[in-house]
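Open question from group meeting: does this chain pack into something compact, or does most of it stay loose? Before anyone orders reagents, we agreed to write out a predicted structure and look at it together. Recording both the input and the output here so the notebook holds the full record.
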Amino acid sequence: MTTPRILLIATGGTIAGVAADPSQPAHYQAGSLDAATLLSALPGLAGIADIRLRQPFNLDSCELGPAHWLAIAREVAAGMDDAAIDGIVVTHGTDTLEETAFLLDRLFAPTKPLVLTCAMRPANALSADGPSNLTRAIEAAITPALAALGTVVVIDERIHAAAWLRKHDARALDAFDHGGSTIGRCGPIAIDFEPRVPPRIPGRIEVLGLLPRVDVLWVGPGSATDLLAAALANGACGVVLALPGNGTLPTAWRKAVDHATKRQVAVVRASRTSRGAVSAAPDDTPLLFAAGRLGPAQARAALMLAIAAQLPADHFFG
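Structure tokens returned:
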């Protein structure tokens, strides 16, 4: 039996982090270890898969931007096109994992498993979670049936649909929403249910250039609308408003939002809450619409991708 061949694309994050004091894992430098070093701590993987390494960069995920997202996507595209690769794993920081996972899920209808993984504790912590997460991710990547589910994220023994992933805890090992995004579990790999297929644009990565500027504005009681004016003045092509409750737009913001949409700038009504979908409103338009199940971070990535691909602004919000 041929050993499955896995492409591991390492990008840094906590999973590759090192703490000065292993007993104080909250204080560490992300992206300190390269991919080969991560694998050297898991000798048992040699019997599971033949792993090939790529390391486009080694950064804390809070330092990533749209150019990094596209760099990862191009590495993934190369792996998808390589007949010698059976599955792909991407290691990533947790802080902005939901954006990268979302973008990859919209850009690819995978023909082989595409799995992202991460860690909440640095590699040298007394109880590091990265080795287990990476092992489980590789187990997922050698499971052909996962290809049909789109991009998935493996962390803390759970399998999440990248389309609906949200980070909901700053420090817990199960830091990601395990209600709306969880579709299965590890040890062994088991799928509880399949996520509904979101709108995708496979095969478009090679024609995408720079992603446009889209800003997220947090709107609280009395927040000034000059925040929106400043975003437009500085070149924002779209804006996501993190609004109270069910994406409720305050009356004081309506004039500023109307001004934005008249300038053909899309405005997304997202919610500051961490759960639940934002409902459509009677006065929504093609340029002012609800984020639905997407959180502000995902909504930003969705709007950037739609504008770059010259699609209707709400294309990825179905």
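Observations to bring back to the group:
Helices lie at 35-40, 66-81, 97-107, 130-141, 226-233, 251-262, 296-308.
The longest helix spans residues 66-81.
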